[in-house]
Amino acid sequence: MALIISDECINCDVCEPECPNGAISQGDDIYVINPSLCTECVGHHDKPQCMEVCPVDCISKDPVHVEDQADLYQKYLTLID
Question: Mean pLDDT for each 10-residue chunk of the chain (81 residues)?
Answer without folding.
Answer: 95 97 97 97 97 98 95 96 79
